[in-house]
Amino acid sequence: MTTMTARPDELLELPPRTSEFRRFLRVFLGRKIVILGSTIILALIIVAIFAPFIAPFDPYRQNLRETLQQPSGKYLLGTDPLGRDVLSRIIYGSRVSLMVGLVSVGIAGCIGMSLGLLAGYFGGLADMLIMRFIDALMSIPPLMLAIAIGAALGGGLTNVMISLGIALIPTYARLMRGQVLTVKQSDYVIAGEVVGGSDLRIMLVHVFPNCLSPLIVLVTLNLGYAILAEAGLSFLGLGISPPGAAWGAMVNDGYRYLLTNPILSFAPGFCVMLVVLAFNLVGDGLRDALDPRLRGTI
Amino acid sequence: MIHVLEVRDLKTQFRTDSGVVQAVDGISYYIDEGEIVGLVGESGCGKSVSQLSLLQLIPMPPGKIVGGEVIFEGFNPLEFKADSEQMRAIRGGKIGIIFQEPMTSLNPVLTIGQQIIEVLVLHLRMDRVTARRRAIELLKLVGIPDAGQRIDNYPHQLSGGMRQRVMIAMALSCNPRLLVADEATTALDVTTQAQLLELLQDTVKRFNTSLLIVTHNLGIVARYAHRIYVMYAGRVVESGTSRDIFGNARHPYTVGLLKAVPRLDEPRGHKLVPIEGLPPNLINRSPTCVFLPRCSHRVEQCQREPWPELRLVDGQHYVSCHVDITKQSCPSNYALGIAATLASGVTAVRCEERASVNVRPSLDETLLEVKNLKMYFPVTRGLLRHKVADVKAVDDVSFKIKKGETLGLVGESGCGKTTVARCILRMYRPTEGQVIFEGRNIAQLPKSGIRPIRHKMQLIFQDPYSSLDPRQNAGSIVGEPLKIHHLVKSNTEYQRRLAELFRMVGLDPGMKDRVPHEFSGGQRQRIGIARALACNPSFIVCDEPISALDVSIQAQIINLLEELQHKLGLTYLFIAHDLSVVRHISDRVAVMYLGRIVEITDWKSLYESPLHPYTQALLSAVPIPDPFVEEKRERIILKGEVPSLINLPLGCNFHPRCSLAIKECKQVVPLLRDVGEGHEIACIRV
After folding, report:
1. Is the ipTM of this complex over 0.95?
2. Which residue of B has its CA nearest to A205?
3. A138–chain B nearest CA distance, Å
């Protein structure tokens, strides 16, 4: 019996394949804007790690003779009401802010996505129990919830991250569940079942990767929210305590001097914006580079 | 004579990231008063874009009409701006359009009456009272019963066929000179399709409008069109009267299309002749004939000279081909010499096939038996989800499939074909009844009990676009069953088996690293088939495996399925709504209507002497791509609509639409009974 073989013209249509990882890098780094984002993130991480070597002054040393200085050659970004160098505080603050952002979003993402995946995939009772819990969590404003959890666990950076993480869970869970419900309808999920795949396999191999796109965007947006929320918590005495430096707290402390020394709020504010922007750019690039449907179009 | 509409050398392009797509590349056609013209071609050939272009409905940008003129009532509508007063008067006013999707073309938050009245008020400046009266008239005209009450219905309260009737009413509302039906019946069932096409034909006769049918279905144009334009890759390749095209096709593409579809009225046992290769890329097209790479009649001249202009053959028959295929020994020596694999390969296979059809294994061993299968889905309401009714998707269905045979399961959408398949594959747990596979009742086995036998029964899906995980590469999709069932011991064996599977379905194993997105529809369907074959199943359910594919590709897949069956001794349950395809591939055929089997027998008696009135109507509704045969055929047009599954008629499901129905039919549920030689029907009147 002759089996039909593909005609040569069908095969010649596409260029030869490069390795998966190299293709990913090529698409990912193929856009200038993504390189920009990656560079910013990389630079911030380096700054955070090597803060003691980079910062020109001790961020905690008060100098009451030089309070509220305008930017100058000595103090590039001026000084705060206690005479501390703003630049040094921003450099040190990057450690706290980046960590709070990444860890709390990480906690929320892991727990939220898992809950959403389980609820959406199994449906029925599991769905009802999980989603009612999420609804309950959602009915409390995130910051209020974080304050309540922070109050229960006590202050400190770790607890701030945990409470922010929990407060952000509902959005992830709900978005994930919605995605799963759509993806679950696809024929390829049914196909996974027909060939005999276990629930765990179908969930992790077929459902989860196809749900990720909007969640990547949510992660990048939430980073900025978490960094700013930390300020709110610190303001209430739940976050890091003075003289510790964090961007959110600096924005908060500086707003009283907005008319005379705007740089006090603007400089750390600009840093938060930079982080959110950079993660957004990288997130977009990541989403597109991971999406096989866009192959050949970018 | 002045034509109602004339299009001259229309060119439309779309700018995309990867280049300029020449979707419509200089087509010319005309349509006269009271004429029905068919525009046929496969998806992406530019038939819809050409219609949208002349109405300036294409999105601009990225679309752009770069050339040509349109003459309609002495004007060139292309000279008007897309959103100008004049253009809006033409659209929906003088030219009525009916689109494919009746589900989405009506606004769900307005009643159908409001939507028709809006058109009347807008275009004809009627006042609301007159407009409403006229709307009711129109609904009556398109055959909507109780038009007076129905006018206040919302679209979701109407069936697909009814909605499409409403669309026709809207299109007719301003007494258009021209109606354009753009795949208007494609999404509908054959019986509904027949009803609507008859309605359109009557309309043309009554109001002397012109009708342009845009479709990929050759049967429809053969039955209704006076003249036909065959399009390929944005150009008209052949045009002429319906007799010219079907009786004396002169373009290799037209000839190929006609050979690629199985027909209801031809002898069986031959293999379909697919058009090899893929439809062309419309970006950077070559200056030579675009059909050249797929053509079995090519001569050397084709490669040297630019795309041939349409030339007159006789009367109104034009063709765009360098070769006169009637004079050429078929296929041409050149084509044989240069691309021996193409044409000669196919002929060789055909001869071989004829021989092997007779030696088909006809073991009397039953592989699968379905006994009194019932699948009810509860309809729940309220907070506590109490059951208010059942959707009886499958209601007491029984049949047997022998080893190595193909059972065709046909019926209109919603009749429960797919539900039967899913019960057999145990995607659902049946409400009642038995599914005996290889001597074992699997109907009520728990999920864990099913998993070990999953590899013996597989499924081929309808939609090759959604059935493959977009994030997995072809290799891991096909190899997944091998891993799950531990069918291979080492990585080398895995790779070897993978390569074997790819070759078996006619794909190059080198493509295994590509993701589904990088394959064409036909190739994707091959991947789906390879996945189903991976764990050596004995039984495969093919759920509409070709209905999402283009005509020229369909034949390739049917042939592949047939070859695999012979080679691997597979047993198929072949589900389809296309009766011609089922006839081509099945040994026995079961016809379903509203969750029940109404007739089941071998293919020959079903197609040659159908007994159940529904089967007869179904068969008569299928158009045959041959105007000569169509003229002589008697048609049975079913009345009414398919009833809802929640509110089934008492007695025989079919009695409200049946011409033979008597009083008893409303009381007795007819059971399947044997009328001789295994021909079973469920009807008390036959």
Report:
1. no
2. B472
3. 22
